[in-house]
Amino acid sequence: MIWKNNSLSIVLFLITVVLIGAMFLTGWQVYDRELAEHGRLAIGAADYLTSGHFLSTMFENWESEFLEKAAYVVFTAFLIQRGSAESRDPDEPQDQDNDAPGSNPASPWPVRSGKLVRWLYSYSLGIVLVLIFVGTILLHLTSSREKANMEAELHGQPQVGYWEHLGEAEFWFESFQKWQSEFMSTGALVVLSIFLRFRGSPESKSVSAPHSETGKETESRNRNRAIVTAVACSALL
Known about the structure:
Layout: H1 2-37, H2 45-49, H3 52-78, H4 115-122, H5 124-154, H6 162-166, H7 169-195, H8 218-236
Helix pairs in contact: 3-5, 3-7
């Protein structure tokens, strides 16, 4: 039952752990080779795990991922792409969640709390994603500065502080090269889902849905309309 109900998250996080391990092993080899080229001794696994060389690369990727996810959650609440499975339908009335206190006993506890708590909860997904992005960019800054100082030491150059490193083109180059790819791939998914399908995926419209139909719920809406129409016809007969 646990696997059936959580298989998607389990598989995704297992793949994440495996890939972080592979990144660690290959990065360790690369860094030891770099140290050897400068006449330095190789470092141990624990030292590399906490090194700027490893953490900077990891956090700059996390930073870009959470920026893209936060932007996507916020943008799809306000912006439209007609025909895309990733967009809400501009021609359909949007059902607003009924977050009135006591409206549903099974609702999450913030819905049954005060207005401020309910308001924060109503935007909590975007808020948390933004906070994680801010946290990862700070971790990227810290580890990237450590990496820069390690490289400076190898080349006999002076160390840099946080503010100095924040103003370095290298730090922002590390970020921008990831950010642009995230927004490009998301934009491609938004547009490709207009014309292409993947049977069984909630990220795809139904195979028979016209290209002009917008949103993931078009099939269920059409089915509901058909049921309503059939009931109405039966009543008339």
